[in-house]
Amino acid sequence: MAAPNPPPDLKPRLKEAYDSISTAYEWTQPHHPLRMNYTTELLKLLRKYHAKKDESGNDTPSLAGMHALELGCGSGVPVMEILLAKDMDVIGVDLSGAQIALAAHHFPNHIERHQLVLAEKDMMTLTYPPDEFDAVVALYSICHLPRDEQRVMLERVERWLKPGGMFLMNFPAEEMEGKVKEHWLGQEKGWMYWSAWGEEKMLEIIKELKFEILLQEVISDPGADATFLWVIARKTGGPAQLAKFED
Predict the structure, then answer these.
(1) Which positions ≥6 away from 9 have C-beta within 8 Å?
(2) pTM value?
């Protein structure tokens, strides 16, 4: 159902929906290969641009200690799981307290040793200093924002990233001012909202923000009746040369 004007209680309704369906939330399962593949590609690009020197002065692909943010982290599987396995320091943010509780259940040891911080928040309320993160990931999350908020969110991510930092994101490839499903996934409390600028306009916005697009692909999503634009973009500045190793 088309919904050009998002309701004033959009965020509480989204939160209620994700809280309600959290224990039966299997929609992400078919997406895991896509999420894993693109997260792995992000890590490859981070290594190529940000390889550190070992004691012998050689490039090393370690990502340990890099700072990452996931917007709409859900249960943390598989994206945060992959980042944490590479010894990155991660902040996971989600609107749903139930999803955050699942993530806390999955990664108690990482929380205990302060490698992982979880926050139940609307991403539009987040405040971080400039040049804070080496990587930001937002998969199937920014599309829940109204379109005017989406551009603001991308502007903030660009500011939060360090020079040379990278942003993995995806969006519906089809333009839609607003779309609502009353019972998403067949759930009684599964009210859901999406919006999208469409492939061409979104790429235009990303480039206007002075991101360098390293990867862009349009993929038919096996877990949803939709096609998504996947992008890995790099904030200008930072290391200009690729490291001299290959995965």
Answers:
(1) none
(2) 0.91
